[in-house]
Amino acid sequence: MRITAVTCVKNEGPFLLEWIAFNRLIGVTDHLFYSNDCTDGTDRLLDVLQDRGLVQHLPNPAEGRNYQMEALKDARKHEIVTGADWVWVADVDEFLNIHVGDHTIPALIDACGDPQAISVTFQFFANCGIDAFEDRPVIGQFTRSHNPDLWCGEAAIEVKTLVRRDFPLQYYGAHRPFFRDKLPPKERPAWTDGSGRPVPHRFLVAANPRRIRRFPAKGARDFATLNHYALRSLDSYLVKNDRGDVNRENRAFDDTYWRERNDPAWEDISIRRYQPALDAALAELKADRTICELHDEAVRRHREKRDQLMTRARYAEMYAHLKGLPTYPPGEYELMQELGLVT
């Protein structure tokens, strides 16, 4: 089974090897990376990984527009995507945590009954009070999240989607594929959640904006969860904020983004099942001297960028502000104050 992961990156050098090694453990056979404007050596590391036959690396074709959507449009013309049995569109901070069988994508597909698409629900992992960036696997550092059934007062949580090659595709979205509006009901794809249940109808047909990329999370994660490490360490978040967003040029994250994802109410260490095999896979990749040197360079540049940013008043203030925020999602802490539960 050929499974291709497609992603966009900018200055993700310290995290590339973990994501690639993890994906290979769960059954991803091919990776298509689009990069733009990298200053930490991400692009050079990807070029070497391409030379080793481990990934395919292309410059992002977007011209000051929506980087991810332009890349996904371009991806459809490459054999690494057209020749795949399944396509997995995800980001480098997202890890598909599979709970069934041998914990691989083929096991998930089998558990879901081999549909044409599988949408897996996000679980946003908190910063966990970790300030300093460490060069070790993210999946072993961050272990707490919001209640998986509830996020910021919402029962519907975002998803990302595995897409089978015979899906009646109009275009790939970042969170789910789309088929044409007037596709007859009998030709609509078989599409399940992460428990093998049919996705809600209004999500299936993208009936309104609130249902294009999310549906109720309760009961939807029996076979898989999508662990999203959007914050990582406070150091790395500062660098991420400076970098911007692959979806839009010059977009910055404010404290709302941080607060929405920094709810540590729930402990979940299930993804650590992959840790021993991941450590071995990373050691194998780093046994290549050039790969190891480029990874170490990206780590060094990541730390240097953090130090550089902290010399600027705006970033130093942002760091102190985020560090001092309560670990409650927006609205919850304010309600607790109103009810006199906190002072």
How would you briefly describe this protein structure?
By secondary structure, the protein is an alpha/beta fold. It has helices spanning 16-25, 42-51, 67-75, 79-82, 105-111, 138-141, 201-204, 234-243, 255-261, 275-286, 289-310, 313-324, 332-338, and strands at residues 3-9, 30-35, 56-59, 86-89, 94-98, 117-124, 144-145, 156-164, 171-172, 177-178, 191-193, 214-216, 224-228, 266-267.
Layout of helices and strands:
Layout: E1 3-9, H1 16-25, E2 30-35, H2 42-51, E3 56-59, H3 67-75, H4 79-82, E4 86-89, E5 94-98, H5 105-111, E6 117-124, H6 138-141, E7 144-145, E8 156-164, E9 171-172, E10 177-178, E11 191-193, H7 201-204, E12 214-216, E13 224-228, H8 234-243, H9 255-261, E14 266-267, H10 275-286, H11 289-310, H12 313-324, H13 332-338
Structure description:
By secondary structure, the protein is an alpha/beta fold. The longest helix has 22 residues, at 289-310. Strands 1, 2, 3, 4, 5, 6, 8, 11, 12 and 13 form a ten-stranded mixed sheet that branches. Strands 7-14 form a two-stranded antiparallel sheet. Strands 9-10 form a two-stranded antiparallel sheet. A hairpin with a 4-residue loop joins strand 9 (171-172) and strand 10. Helices cover 34% and strands 18% of the residues. It is built from 13 helices and 14 strands. It starts with a strand and ends in a 5-residue tail after the last helix.
